[in-house]
Each structure stands twice: as C-alpha cells, then as structure tokens.
Amino acid sequence: MPPSPLTVTLIQSTILNAISNILAQLIDQRKTNKPFSLNTIALIQFVTYAVIIVPINFSWQRYVEAQFPGFPSWRRDTDNNSNAPGPDDLLPVTEKPFKTHQQRSGLWNFAMKFILDQTVGGVFNIVLFVVLINLLKGMGWVRIWELICEDFGPIMIARLKFRPIVSALMYTVVPVDRRVVFGSACGVIWGVYLSLYAVV
User: Fold this and answer.
1) Is the pTM of the predicted complex or chain greater than 0.85?
2) What are the distances in angstroms from CA 71 to CA 77, 125, 141, 167?
3) Domain ranges across the chain
C-alpha cells in the first residue's frame, strides 16, 4: 500500500526543513569564523517544529482549495462554450439537475486563495512558529508573548518579500497535495531565515 499524500509531504518537507537548518548553522558559524559543528539540539527543535506544522498546513491547503477550487482547465472552458449538447441536455426539462446560474471564476478563486495565504495563512504560521520554536527551547508563555509582539512585524515583512511569488505559482500550477512540499522547497531560504531567527 503506497504512503498517503500527507505522509509523503511530511517526509519531504521535514527533510527540506532540516537542510534549511543545517545551512543556517553553516552561515551562522561562518560569520564568526568558527569551524563547523552541528548543533544537534537546534536541528531537532527545528525538525520537530516542521513535523508539527506540516500536517496543519497540509489540511489548510486542502480546505482552501475545497472552498475556492483552482483554475478551470482549457478543456472544460471549451466544452462549456461549445454548442454540443451535454448529457444533461438530453434529459426532459423536468428531470434536468439544478445548476447555478453563476459560478465563481477561476481568477476569483485564485485571488481569494492568494489573499488568504498572505493574510490568514501568514499570520497563523508566523505566530505558530514563534510559539512552537520557543516552547521547544523551554521558554515560558510570558516571554513567548513578548517575542510575538517584538518579532511578528519583522518576520511578516520578510515573508512578504518572497511569499507572493511562491503563492502565485502554488495556486496556478502546483497540485493541492504538493503545495506544502513546493512551499518548503521554495522556502529553503525562508527556512534559513527562520533558523537564524531561532538562534541556531
């Protein structure tokens, strides 16, 4: 029995996040001219964070896609615009299924997913990152709240410098079950940034 999409996503994203953390450690130690020494505790903390966050984001992407399905295919548009009768057109009028007169366009759905990713998704992921990474370091809730207040703005600004491009690609060409992995792959640099934030 093949592994589920979530299992595959979890494994791949966790590996990518581990690579991000190791790269961040290399950068951090190179700045101080120290010989490289792997900080195993920091690596475990960051990987644990990834294991927790990936299923949440996986479910989020599926939910958003269910609410705002992706672009209609060219084939579907062609079929809808053609004069050829569909299967339902051959039924008597009283037996035809009800169809909505107005459906949301693919562009509208893309816009909604894009906006949700930049706002709700961004806020949730940043807050969850600060909370989880500092809980894993053993910090108390009072200090974690202070860090959220201090660091949310700078992290959000940094996120907005690269995430819109990732989102545009993610919601136009990437299948829903591959979006978290795609985001992790594109976000290796972002993972380095988060690792450096976490003081690897």
Assistant:
1) no
2) 10, 25, 43, 14
3) 5-76+105-197
